[in-house]
């Protein structure tokens, strides 16, 4: 992220925290991809800032993430928990902000692996649907909005190709057959090991922005994507499937393949947003577009701060 982008987030953070009665002094930036995430040490909290462009749908999704995590916490599911002292989410100047209780890392904390993720997903997928209106899963995430908001990120040829791919997936998704072993229900929507926080009490799940109702297959796709496109060992996919309790050959199911293609292009969204301010992001975006448009089986490499 450029200094200008960081400064914009800090100014917004200070404004929102002041209005909410939270102390934003000495805020520490933890992440900056789909969300700009800051730890507020004097409030023992975490703030997540997402540019939603005044989208009512994304505001509803962020509100749902707060409601669902409260419901999950009541059922002792290991999730981050919203800060109850603050009415949320808060929308300011096209940004939506949520506040969460800070989860300190354990002394011997280690990064989560595929088995850890699979067990938490299996536990999530066995829960009943919450008494909360869940949005339908959108496998393309924020990409269509981001393409509209950042037309400068792509050439006309790239943009036309990507819009056609989005349209094809959006048209096929509603009637696409999904593996019967992975029925519809409550899903996280963006499940990968990077969204598991190691604490002294075990791993807790964060980043519920995409929580929704859809095929549970959606929650396994990020692990497959990391093997195919990001170079993770294939053993991690086999480990995930074994711990979850499904046949790894399900990756060839037509529904899984459709979700995988959606994940590939959904993963471009952060680069589309950052292309105008980051040379590295623009270069990686062009590389990914080239490999997608030519059908090349290339490993993608994420610059620092991206996946």
TrEMBL record:
Transmembrane segments: none annotated. The keyword Lyase does not apply. Residues 31-227 form the Aminoglycoside phosphotransferase domain. Keywords: Transferase. GO terms for molecular function: transferase activity. It comes from the Bacteria. InterPro entries: Aminoglycoside_PTrfase, Kinase-like_dom_sf. SUPFAM superfamilies: Protein kinase-like (PK-like) (SSF56112). Gene3D superfamilies: 3.90.1200.10. The keyword Transferase applies. This is Aminoglycoside phosphotransferase family protein. The lineage of its organism: Bacteria, Bacillati, Actinomycetota, Actinomycetes, Streptosporangiales.
